[in-house]
Amino acid sequence: MEVFNKFAVLLIIISLQLTTFTNMASKLVKMVTFNNGQLYPILGLGTWQATAVLNESQQSAIVDSVKKAIDIGYRHIDCATIYQNEKSVGKAINDKIADGVIKRDEVFVTSKVWNDKHRAELVEEALKNTLNDLSLSYIDLYLIHWPFATSEDPNATDSEGRLLGSGISYLETWKAMERCVQNGLTKSIGVSNFNIRQLKDILKIATIKPVVNQVECHPYLTQKKLKEFCDSEKIFLTAYGPLGSPKRSWATPDESVILDEPLVKQIGDKYNKTSPQILIKFQIQRGIIVIPKSSNPERQKENFDVWDFELSQEDIDLLESLNRNIRYFQFTTAKHLKDYPFFDEA
Ligand SMILES: NC(=O)c1ccc[n+]([C@@H]2O[C@H](COP(=O)([O-])OP(=O)(O)OC[C@H]3O[C@@H](n4cnc5c(N)ncnc54)[C@H](OP(=O)(O)O)[C@@H]3O)[C@@H](O)[C@H]2O)c1
């Protein structure tokens, strides 16, 4: 009996330590406060996979990898309808809620409306489909993925292979996004890949302000001007492709690779940190939300292990000096559309 009691006490101690670890892990993530008062983790997990169509075993690998990420301490998951994996991401989140590892309000889920659903009547329907796929009753943040609208057949192209536009304005889409907040489907709304002029247009008509603009950002594309504007409007930038998205299908052998940049490596050596950790901390210290993607638990851990050092301002300036306005995400088949964003600024 005494042995049994000792064993029970030991089990309780172990389980208490595990809970503390889990809670500590989630507490370690620095939170930012949006312009509507909502808190959001500054570091999240990207979920875009390089493969366009995912088979069953890839989907089940996503479930496992998101679960591992939650165990590591990630509490912010970046999704999108177009990634075609929201069912798997949702399963991972719901399994972890069912296991008692997290509560729904401890995990922050972002999704995005794709370019074929910009018409006002389609936006709420698109979000409801996402909620259905994720098996959640609400998400925390919904974004307009790109400012331009394509035809309702998202793959329809002209004879030159260019996407067909629908001419729908992002202002119409924004009004529909606001209704999604009013109807309790999402806590916050924002945009992605918008330029300064387009953000100003939204701000003129918004009754609910965007909380973030999610854009490509790394030392080769520091987004200085856009960040200054967003700061002045209390809109956060979220950095996608923070590691330079090395496994993009359209990466070319001759392009500059930020993960191989000697200066990044040199700064890493100084702090005893890896290049990915330097690239992630660079964004965090600039006050930019950052969402590196990894399906590999070791690399997820590495990317999350950025809380025990601070880059000096001098090193941040050095990293900023690498800016070359290199855009890896150009969306060239939409360049002819009226709301294509990347013309009037770097
Ligand atoms: N709004 C938009 O238009 C938009 C566009 C693109 C992306 N996004 C979002 O932003 C997220 C991040 O961008 P991204 O996925 O394109 O690029 P990224 O985060 O810069 O890079 C991800 C790639 O780097 C590898 N990687 C991750 N950690 C690593 C490490 N420590 N060492 C070496 N390699 C590592 C990953 O491979 P493994 O998985 O094998 O580790 C993956 O292939 C996306 O997943 C998506 O959620 C949004």
TrEMBL record:
Where would I find the NADP-dependent oxidoreductase domain in this sequence? 43-323
Q: Where is this site: Lowers pKa of active site Tyr?
A: K112
- The source's domain of life comes to Eukaryota
Provide an example Pfam family for this protein. Answer: Aldo_ket_red
Binding residues for substrate, per the UniProt record? H145
Leader sequence segment: 1-24
Keywords from UniProt, A to Z, are: NADP, Oxidoreductase, Signal
List the GO molecular function terms.
oxidoreductase activity
Instruction: Tell me if Acetylation is a UniProt keyword of this record.
Output: no
| Residues of the active site | Y83
Protein family: Belongs to the aldo/keto reductase family.
Put simply, this protein is called NADP-dependent oxidoreductase domain,Aldo/keto reductase, conserved site,Aldo/keto reductase
Which lineage do the record's taxonomy fields give for this organism?
Eukaryota, Metazoa, Ecdysozoa, Arthropoda, Hexapoda
